[in-house]
Amino acid sequence: MSAAATDMSGKTACIIGSGFGGLALAIRLQSAGIATTVLEARDKPGGRAYYWQEDGFTFDAGPTVITDPACLKELWGLTGQDMAQDVELMPVMPFYRLNWPDGTNFDYSNDDLALRREIARLDPADIAGYEEFCDYAAGVYREGYLRLGSVPFLDFTSMVKAAPALARYQAWRSVYAMVSKYVSSEKLREALSFHTLLVGGNPMSTSAIYALIHTLEKEGGVWWARGGTNRLIAGMVRLFERLGGQIRLNDPVVKVHTLGNQATEVETAAGWQSAFDAVASNADIMHSYRDLLGDTARGQKMGRSLAKKRFSPSLFVVHFGIEGRWPGIPHHMILFGPRYKGLLDDIYTHGVLPRDFSIYLHHPTVTDPTMAPEGMSTFYALVPVAHQGKLPVNWDEVGPLLEKRILDEVGRRLIPDIHDRIMTCFHYAPSDFTQDLHAHLGSAFSLEPTLTQSAWFRGHNRDDMIKNFYLTGAGTHPGAGIPGVVGSAKATAGLMIEDMLE
Questions:
Q1: The sheet that has 332-335: what strands, in order across it?
Q2: Across the strands, what pairs with 267?
């Protein structure tokens, strides 16, 4: 909807948090003529898509894989604008290079001929199975993403209506189990199932519906925003402010005031307080209910309910800038460890810090040299770790030890003299997710994306009791990842605009 098609004059909305979900929602509301204010606790917008600049290096904190650019371009198209005026997207190829300890490399992309050659190197017999898997993934993409990805699940009836399609695609099976149905090579099974880790899901238990990520990447490609993912955030902020929206930084919201079943005002730590017709939270879902609505019966009840749910793991990320250029290291690499299922069990079930790990290595300067000084390179090395509810370690003590182990492994497999080349280095631990983002248990992706925590079973886009309090972001349907939270914003915006028209 646009302001021309609706009369929203005098309507106001507040959005708590300026992550991708919050900014996408803000743009949609402001485009519809609703005077929208975004409140951000930190000194920069972006939420998990924060960034740092150290010694001339730029380090993105959060998401680095941009898929489905159409869902982003749509935000500019609401008011007839072009995303290219604010953001330059650059293609990434290959999407990922997967590397195993025995030295095997597998370049994953949407170049069908090249990908089939890669599969044939692992096991020629799996080419036919891969094609069958592609057909399956395309089906769940149509059903789970295109049809249901931006539709709010507000009651159980909506879940019942979706059930036949979910059953048809065997949604109760895991991604890994479904992949294994089609291909027999263990390496290829890992190559086709690891994607769920990018949204906080265990490939061994995450619903097979999440195989849609394969088609999402295949259809839309994998992209990088010149200057970093933070430049995509900056472009969204520029668009929002051009439309007349307001954003307040460095002032965390401490309370959402209510009267009966209505949210009435929002209050910040600095004492700023204002009334709004509607309030939406892009903050951590537990923080939204337990803390911001903590004085209400609804907030307390939801806090207790959420505490019983399964939350995604956290992450340990080492950011480092080094001397030299590394054209042989692609933009995205997965350095698999010696174990797959066993490592996932340690992270998701046992809650231990294992001796081995798999590393997601991000190397943006191979695509975009502006991320580092001349002749230098920017990297980050990320490993999933159990959240603090399962792994309550002292990260001030453990962090430096794990940082060295990770850099040692990157050095052993890719950059032999890595320690001599490092110009700047720091890490980000689960405790930082808790402190900086109010992330429950330090979870990096909010609720774990299991079948029983998806769609209606996930956070609702509109609260069931406080009728003008809404949610968007990773803890809300459809879930984490840039396309997921932008889809949640679309679902939430539709509800808010419809409600304000009544």
A1: 105-108, 96-99, 332-335, 359-362, 376-385, 314-323, 422-428
A2: 255, 273
Task: For residue 267, give the 3-state DSSP assignment.
Answer: strand
Cβ neighbours around 401 below 10 Å, total = 10
Give the model confidence (pLDDT) of 383-404 as tens digits.
999 999 999 999 999 999 999 9
Q: What is the mean pLDDT of residues 352-358?
A: 93
Closest CA to 302 of 288, 282, 283, 313: 288
pLDDT tens track for 33-63? 999 999 999 999 999 999 999 999 999 998 9
Euclidean distance between CA atoms 502 and 491, whole angstroms = 17
Sequential DSSP letters for 345-414: HIIIII----S---EEEE-GGGT-GGGSSTTEEEEEEEEEE--TTT----HHHHHHHHHHHHHHHHHHHT
pLDDT score of 215 more than 60: yes
Distance CA 288, CA 255 (A): 9
406 and 353 Cβ atoms separated by less than 8 Å = no
Q: Are 64 and 334 in contact (CB under 8 A)?
A: no
Cα(442)–Cα(388) distance, integer angstroms: 6
